[in-house]
Amino acid sequence: MKNPKLKGIETFIDDFINAKKKLETIELKLESLIAHISEVENNSRNKRTKSDIESYSEDVGFDVLKKLIHSLVERIEIHHTKEEKSGFYVVQIKYRYYEEYSTFVTNWQALNWYWANHTRKTAYTQKDLDEDYEIEKYMANKKGRKVIPKKAFKGYSSSAMMHEIIKLKPEELLRFDYPST
Fold first, then answer.
1. Degrees, nearest 5: CA angle 38-40-42
2. Which of 82, 106, 129, 134 has most Cβ atoms within 10 angstroms of its Cβ?
């Protein structure tokens, strides 16, 4: 530099540029590590859940079935709305190891279960993640912001109306409060 008043600024600028490059590299490594940790945690949850479900058979006793349900379900909330004849039940199931829950509605006979909705805090399957990432790209483009790198993207929370009916036969109901007929 020819101006003596600017002496040392070149070094400062070079140091600043190098520090900025190092920060960008560290941020990319951090995003990659976060994505890896999320993937490992999700695979672990999925393997544990699959193992628990595969351990079920129809001839298990109450204690084994209770243990299986406790391994899959964190909480069950049941609300009853009384009507002139019986009423209906709203059952919300919060799943263990996942930030998600499902809501079901049935009458007192409990043979037809209407799966009302499913809510999740983040994407747990690759399909969910891919669908959410398409939304992310669209929203980023629409708002004129940078798209979150796919490796760091965890998905969105969502709530979906399921509109599905699960029909049970009377012999498929497990009754613990009184003997089966």
1. 65
2. 129
